[in-house]
Write a structure and sequence with these properties.
Length: 203
């Protein structure tokens, strides 16, 4: 089941100082996704946090994946900048995502982070996100497109055009806050029926 994952720098400190830092983080994601059998559907690397939209294929895959990536990156970062101590703000935050109603909304939310933060005016101008994969068909070894995206429009060229229009369209009122809240609080992001099913299954 897809999960929205947020990993923040400790005390909101910067965890990426330059191009090489983000490239290192991406390399570590690639290194460990096969080991833990995790599909990465969407991502964005901000200056002090990351968002991922992933599907782990075994019960403990996500925790092992994020722990390995987080520890390896922190060691690299501390060595590079001559620092010590914790880089990340404790354990990552995550929530289950309802594919029927909320997957693409969550994917759009992730890819619009740089625009919301005023870093770029257009999502396609930010290199460190999955937007170009979904909006223009750019290949990335990190990217596994989710069926919700592929079924958005069967023809690939029309899908890219439709996805760009979807991202440019206004997000329903309150949805942005809901997506942020559910991830931080560890709640299920989905319809009432979906939440009831998750509650029955996981408590």
């Amino acid at each position: 089941m897809p999960q929205h994952v947020i990993q923040r720098g400790n005390n909101r400190q910067q965890c990426f100082q330059d191009f090489a830092d983000k490239a290192t983080y991406m390399m570590l994601l690639l290194r460990y996704l096969k080991k833990y059998d995790v599909d990465v559907h969407a991502w964005v690397f901000m200056s002090n946090h990351t968002h991922l939209l992933v599907t782990p294929h075994t019960e403990n895959a996500l925790s092992g994946f994020m722990k390995s990536v987080g520890q390896a990156y922190a060691q690299s970062f501390n060595h590079k900048y001559g620092r010590s101590g914790s880089l990340w703000e404790g354990r990552f935050k995550s929530c289950l995502v309802d594919t029927e109603s909320y997957f693409l909304q969550c994917q759009r939310y992730i890819e619009l982070n740089p625009v919301k933060a005023g870093m770029v005016e257009y999502a396609g101008d930010f290199q460190w996100s999955s937007y170009r994969c979904h909006a223009y068909g750019m290949h990335s070894p990190l990217h596994t497109p989710h069926s919700s995206y592929l079924e958005f429009q069967p023809d690939s060229d029309r899908r890219y055009e439709s996805y760009r229009a979807f991202v440019d369209s206004p997000m329903p009122g309150g949805l942005e806050d809901l997506i942020r809240y559910t991830a931080i609080a560890g709640k299920a992001l989905g319809s009432e029926k979906f939440q009831e099913e998750i509650a029955a299954q996981y408590g």
